[in-house]
Design a protein that fits this description.
Elements lengths: L21 H32 L1 H11 L2 H28 L6 H25 L1
Length: about 130
């Protein structure tokens, strides 16, 4: 029978005692960026459909995508694309059972974060 007199111990790890690891946070962020890329894709498809519809409708869609908000969304989408790509490469490395030690896994997580920022800036500068 289970011990019901556990005292003041929490039944499971709680936010006050749990420290999130870099690998878990980057894994969660990979899922978030994947879903965010779907939303960005829908905006771009909307822009193409507006271009095929009429000049008036295209002016509205183009106005949204070239506004400061549209520029911000597209910039963050570019970062999400690089982050998601590099995180996918990290998972391919892990699929070969390489770099699974804690230190190496954290180094890969830092490389994914840093690499995505650097590649995003380089892409914006080049384009």
């Amino acid at each position: 029978m289970a011990d019901v007199n556990r005292g003041d111990r929490p039944l499971s790890p709680h936010l006050t005692i749990y420290r999130p690891q870099l690998t878990s946070m980057t894994s969660i962020l990979t899922r978030i960026t994947g879903n965010a890329l779907l939303v960005a894709m829908l905006l771009i498809v909307w822009w193409f459909l507006a271009a095929a519809s009429s000049p008036e409708y295209f002016a509205i869609a183009n106005g949204v995508l070239t506004s400061w908000f549209g520029d911000l969304v597209l910039f963050l989408s570019l970062w999400a694309l690089w982050f998601h790509t590099l995180a996918g490469i990290r998972h391919l490395i892990w699929d070969t059972a390489a770099m699974l030690d804690i230190g190496q896994a954290e180094m890969l997580g830092k490389c994914v974060i840093g690499g995505s920022v650097v590649l995003t800036i380089l892409t914006v500068i080049i384009i």
